[in-house]
Structure formats: C-alpha cells, structure tokens
What does this fold into?
Amino acid sequence: MQKIQQASMAAGASSTTMLAAAVAVLAVVVAVSFPLLRRLFAAGADERRRPLPPGSFGLPVVGQTLSYLRALRDNTAEDWLRRWSAAYGPVSRLSLFGGPAALVTGASANKFLFANTAVKSPESMSRMIGRRTIRDVTGDEHRRVRAMVVQFLRPDAVKRYVAGMDGEVRRHLDAEWRGRGSVAVMPSMKSLTFDVMCTVLFALGRDGDAATVRRDLSADFQQLVRGIAVVPLDLPFTAFRRCLAASRRGRRAVAGVIEQRRAGLARGERSPADDVVTGMLAEGLPDDEIIDNVMFLMIAAHDTTAALLTFLIRHLESNTDAYDKVVQEQEEIARSKAPGEALSWEDLGRMRYTWAAAMETLRLVPPVFNTARVMTQDVEFGGYLIPKGWQVIQATTMTQWDPAIFPEPGRFDPGRFEDPSAVPPYSFVAFGGGARICPGNDFARAETLVAMHYIVTRFRWRLAAGCDGSFSRFPLPYPAQGLLIDIEPIH
It folds into this structure.
C-alpha cells in the first residue's frame, strides 16, 4: 500500500510538472504571437473599413444576368451599362453569371484591368478553353509563353504569311462570291478567317484527314463561342454543357494534330518554323499547354476578325466618302501589281486609310464588348475594396463611345485614327492594353487589309432588300441576316 501511495504521489508530481511546462510553453507562444495577432486583427479591421463598391447584387444567383443578356441580344447593352454607372458611379457592384462582380469604367479602369497581374479568367472560360493560356499565366511563365506565341505573330513572321493570306482570300471569293447575286457577309467572313488561320498558323491541309479536322474544328469552335456569354450551369441540355462537349472534341482534334507534328519532327520532315504547333513542340511545351494555347488562339483569331470585316463592309456601305477613299487607295495599289501578283507586306503599309477605317469600325463595334476577369487577391481600386474571387468587368465602349474622348462618338470617321498617337492611352482598347495587349494585332491587321483589298477591287455592294444592318451583341456582334448584301462584280 505504501508503495502504491508513493507511486501515486510521484505521478501527481509528474503531472503537475508537465502541466506547469505546458502552461509555460503556452505563455511563451502567446507572448510571441500576440503582437503578430494584433497586427493581423488590425489589418482585418482595416480591410473591413474599406467599403465595397456601391450597387446591388439583385436576386440571389440570378442577379442582373438575365437583364444584361437581354440587353446584349437587343444591342442596348451600352445603354444598360451607362445607366448602371450613372446610378452607382465608375466603380460599382452587381451580380453576373452567378457571382459577385465589380463594373469598372474609364481609361484608368482599362489600365487597371489590363495591367493587373492579380487576375485570371472566369472558371467557365478556363473549363472551356484551358488554364495555361497566354491570357492566364503570369510572371516568368507568361513571358515564356508569350515569347513562344509572338514569334509566329510578330511583324517579321506576318510578312511571310501575306502571300498565304492572299491565296486564301482569292480562293474564298472565287468560290463563295463570284457568280452570286447576294452574300451573307458574316458567315462568309467566319469561313474565310477560319481557313486563313488553319492554313497560315497551323498548316492544316485541305485533303483527307486534314479536311475532316478543319470541318470538325470549325463546328466545335462555333459552339464554343456561344459559351462566352451563357450562365455556366453544367447541367443536361444547357448551353454550357454543349460548350464543354465541344471543347472536349476540339481538344481531341488538336491532340491528334500534335501527334502528327511530333512524328513529323522525329522524321525530320517538319521544322519549328513551319507552324505554331510544331514550334511549341520544339520548345518543349507540354501537350496540355499547347492544346490550351491553340484553343485560345483559334477563338481569339477567328470570330473577332470576321466581325471586324463584316462591320467594316457595313459601315463603308453607308458612308460614301469613306468608301470612295478606300476604293481609291486600293485601286492605286492594284494598278501597281502585275496580273495575278500577290500582295506584299509593303503593299499593306500603303493601306493607311483602309486601316484607319478598320480601327474606327473597331471603336464603334468592338468584337469583344466587355472583358471579365476574376481577382486572385483582394485589390483596392477607386477607393473601394474588390475582394478575391470577384469578377471585374470592363466595358470597351464606355471609353470608345465617350464624347469627351471621341467627339460625336456615333459618327463613322476614320480620320480619328489617321494619327493613332493622338488617341489617349487606354481609351481605345479593342486590342487590349499593357502587358496583355493582343499579340495577334499585326496578324489581324494583315488579314483584314488583304481581304478588303480584293473585296473592294472586285465587287460593289449594297444592303439587300429587307436587311436593315441591325445587329445583336450576343455573344459577339452578329448582324441580322448575317448582313445580307447584293453584290455586283467589277470587271
């Protein structure tokens, strides 16, 4: 019994000692941690004191999504955004596509969004296109991927593409315009720009399996574009579910092209300079990253240039003075060429007024009406807190239609862009801005100018009976009846 009591007393002493040690350790931890915790709580209080932007989230989940989509379909989205900004200011909150968002307007807002590295694509876009695109990677990785892509899109590369673009435009006009009395411009231009991209950037042929890949990719990318402005509900029978299915098919097709290019490289039949896919393979980019960037390039280079060409044709039809100047410029170049001779890079440099007309078209009808990005960390802008996870939405026309920047903003006036340096920074953002400026703007310029040269020197046109030139902005600008025009060949 005595031994038991002695053991019990020893255990008690041991427990007391352990408890004392634990209390001492806890005291040290608290003493060390308290200043840090105090700073953290103070920082949290500071965060809470910064107000969220004024505005309204509307109904749960739905928010303002249905109202905004209706405005896009009716081509009243610019008025919708101006009313919202007039009510709540240049930084406001709302709810779009199932999540909180900050609408930011003005040139400073454009700079904030395009120069900001703490942003990424919305989850719905990442699921459709990929997560490792030039649009989303940051820092050293962004510089590496951008350098890889830009080598196929910089001016010295685009110079080599002009002859290929020339051949594609002639082939298309011979097949789709010659001998016809009318043409739906938008479908025609979408087909043309897709073929130019497949031939020039990806070196896809027109025979056998390559023809099948072209046809399948075209159908899949048309479906993908429809997902740009849909509610991202991955449920049976929804538009978003169909977009995801199209994305999977497109990725499989691009993966097949990668395997062909890899085999060609191994056999010494292909060079890294041949096309974008082979170049990326030679640089050691993983297949998933190549697929992501090919998907992004195909969407970025396809519908945007098609929309530019379509609305340039529309505006020239209704602006005689501008049309006459474009025709005069293009006919002068045509007279300097031998029969059948392709256009050159130097010829494109002489098309200054035509490109000014194209820039004015981009100002009036930007192919991408608004840019949506997601914050990857809390950010302050305009005195308001934009929390991590919120979308930030910028509307291109809020500056491009601002009468303080572009007087009489609804008037088509290519003279605004005859001296591009006169346009204030971040007020014209059809090609983005800052580090995120579109790497393909030289490619788009060349493609547009080559196409317009042959259209205006081979055809006259006017809107067909019953075609009023109206258009929707959902999901991208698309004219009623595809912009149906009556055409007459110039002999």
Remarks:
- Residues 1-47 have pLDDT under 50 and may be disordered.
- The chain has one domain: 65-489.
- DSSP finds 17 helices and twelve strands in the chain.
- The first helix runs from residue 2 to 49.
